[in-house]
Specification:
101 residues, 4 helices
């Protein structure tokens, strides 16, 4: 997988500008996909419910909101770090293979 513009330009013999254009083109288009957002919401809700499964009833709502927001933050970091670069790398490889053929 590619995780940086430098790796992409080195591995595929592209100029830095070409690699940068490809990376940002597919990075921005990947965030438009609904799948990472649905996965993010589902994981955050599951995490918030799991943390608050044994909370007292009166404190449940405040604790739920707190852990939901914390979960959103953690999963956004996870999506940025792993899922989106993997999607981008796959799309870039497909594009380069299509151009070569």
């Amino acid at each position: 997988m590619y995780f940086s513009i430098k790796d992409l330009s080195l591995q595929e013999s592209l100029s830095r500008e070409e690699a940068k254009k490809l990376w940002y083109k597919y990075f921005l288009s990947s965030w438009g996909s609904i799948i990472p957002w649905l996965a993010l919401l589902m994981l955050a809700l599951m995490h918030a419910f799991a943390i608050n499964a044994y909370s007292k009833e009166l404190e449940f709502f405040g604790a739920f909101i707190h852990s939901f927001l914390k979960s959103i933050f953690l999963y956004v970091l996870f999506v940025n770090a792993f899922i989106i670069p993997a999607i981008v790398s796959r799309k870039i490889r497909q594009e380069l293979n299509r151009v070569r053929q």
